[in-house]
Each structure stands twice: as C-alpha cells, then as structure tokens.
Write a structure and sequence with these properties.
TIM Barrel, glucan endo-1,3-beta-D-glucosidase, 10 strands, Glyco_hydro_17, two-stranded antiparallel sheet, eight-stranded parallel β-barrel
Amino acid sequence: MKMLTFDLVLLVVSVAVTISAATKIGVTYSTPDVQEVSPERIVAKVVSMEIEAVRLLDPDPEMIRAFASTKVSLFLSVPNPLVPMLASDRHQAFDWVKLHVLPFHNRTKISMISVGNDLISPEAPPPMFLLQAMQNLRKSLLQLRINDIPVSTTFSFFSLIASPFPPSLAQFKNPNRFLEKTNSSFLVNLFLTTYMDDTSTIHVRYTNLFDVMVDAVVKSLAVMGHESLPVVVAETGWPTWSSNSSEVDATLRCSEKFLDSLVAHLRAGHGTPLRKEGVSEVYIFELCDSGSKQQSKRTWGLLDNHLKTKMNITFFVDIPEMEKKFIRTYLVIVFSLFAGVIGTVCVLTCLTNILSTERPPKPVVGRDKWL
C-alpha cells in the first residue's frame, strides 16, 4: 500500500514537471526605419497569435509600454552602438534602466536584458567594454531595487565555436563567469543556413542540425566548467526570400517547413542528447519583415511589414485545447486515486488500532473487581 502511494506521488510529480518544462517560444521584433504600424496594433497582433515572449532588438519605451498588462514577457536588447557608452559611464547605464525598465517594471513582464548582440569576433579577443557594460547595467538595476531581471549578452554560434561539428570538439573562446555569478542565461544565435556534413566521427545520433548546434554550446560550457548555465537561443530562423539567386532554399515554403519542424520538436520536450531538458527559451527571427524587398537582401518575417500573415502560425499556441482538457482530466483521475488510497490507508489504520487495543476482563462476582 505504501509503495502504491509513493508511485502515485511520483506520477503526479512527473506529470507536473512535464507540463512546466516546455521550452518557451517567442519571436524577435525590430523597429523599422519607417514605423507604419502603431505599437498597440503590433501588441494586439502578438496577443492574438498567442505568442508568449518577444525579444525587442532595439527597445522603444512606447513599445514596452504597449505590452503592459499582457501576459507576454519581454526580452530587451541594448543596441551595439550604445554598449561602449554604457561601459564608460555608469550614469548612462543608470539612465538607460530608468528609461526602459523602471517605468514599466510593475506592469510589464521584462524577463532579461542582453547587452549587445554578437559583439565577439573570432579574430580578436572579447572587447573589454562588454563585461564592464554588463556590470554597470546590473548595478543600476540593483540600485533601483530591481533584482529579478538577469543581464547577459548574446553570442553568435559561429563566432564562438572553434570547431562547430562535431559538438564534442567545440570550445568557447571567451568564458562568461559573470553569467554564472548573477544567475543569468547563456544567450546564443543559431542560424542553420550553414551546411555541415562531417558526421563520420560522431558517436551520438542526431536527427536535426538544431540539436547538433545546441549540444556544441552545451559541450563548450561544460569544457569551461559552466555546464549548469541555462541556454537561451536568442535568434533562429529561416529566410522567406533572398535577393541572392543562389540561395534557392530561401523561400516561404522552406521557412514554414523549418518552423513547423522546430516548434514540433521543441514542444515534444525531448531535449538534446547532451541536455535532456533542452533549451529554456527560443526566439524566432523575426515577427515581421523590417523592410521592403527593395531595401533588404533577405526577409525573415512571419508577417509582412503591414502585419499581414505570410505563413501558418497557429503552432504558437502553447498547449492545444484538447491537450489541456486531457491533462486536466488526467490530473483529476490521478488525484482522485491518490485521495482514495490515502483514505483507505487511514481507515485500515484506525481499524487495526481498534482491534489491537487490549480490553479489560469482565469482573467476576464474589471476587476482586478486576481479577
């Protein structure tokens, strides 16, 4: 009976862990040179698509304000040109936080801040100002009593991995102790448009290139002694169009197929061979085209720059309604069984105690009362 009860407890816990461990899937958004759509319309579109997170690559206070009182979490990025200034002047970092974070902290879900995007070059050592800017921004947050927003920076996969394939040979060129000390995540951009076919030395079976690249990051973190750092894929995607005629796979059809496969893989919750829980968050590049075809060499958007849908995006629903009903019913049954077992154990315990209690002997007439 005790073993059955314990098994039920494990079953309930495993179901809860399975539900809560799903990878958060979001999108990136860049403000176009000419803003044709209001922030309120963009937020309304994001909410209608049931997207749970948005990375603002060049955050604007009006856009951050528009997300107030929604369930969408925001991942803010400090544009690269501002990073040296935030590093050299602590007051500039403080002012950036006062403008982009402090007014919205209680009403808008700001999940993290990235200081710069792909500032590391494989040909040169990491710039000294990068870590200083991260520290200044972190200190500014704490000075304003905001201690629940981690600060990190975003790396490019191909700028950091010395030998991307196989992943067991990959090593990062720049350790990031700051991330571990401040409980931050390791942010990396993964774009799968570079083909790698040297699989002869791989002893772990991979079914897709995304997992190969994630495990290259995981292995490199382990080599540096930071294997416990959560990994966030800050950008990934597939172009829907390219001005280069040789990029024959840059089509709407290929992009939709890639996103369908990626989201299904992430929602399945299988993780990767080296990290069973998988990555904690993935951001798809990008929500809408940031410019016209005449202005851009590639387009990546799920929507065009007028918010018109370019592909099927219903896969952004976190858990389908039928699955939610199944999970609710399943949990009710499990908890009912659990309560029934507990009740049965209590009744049997009471009966056992009653039956095992010694009763006093009946008095005998003419003798002492309790002989």
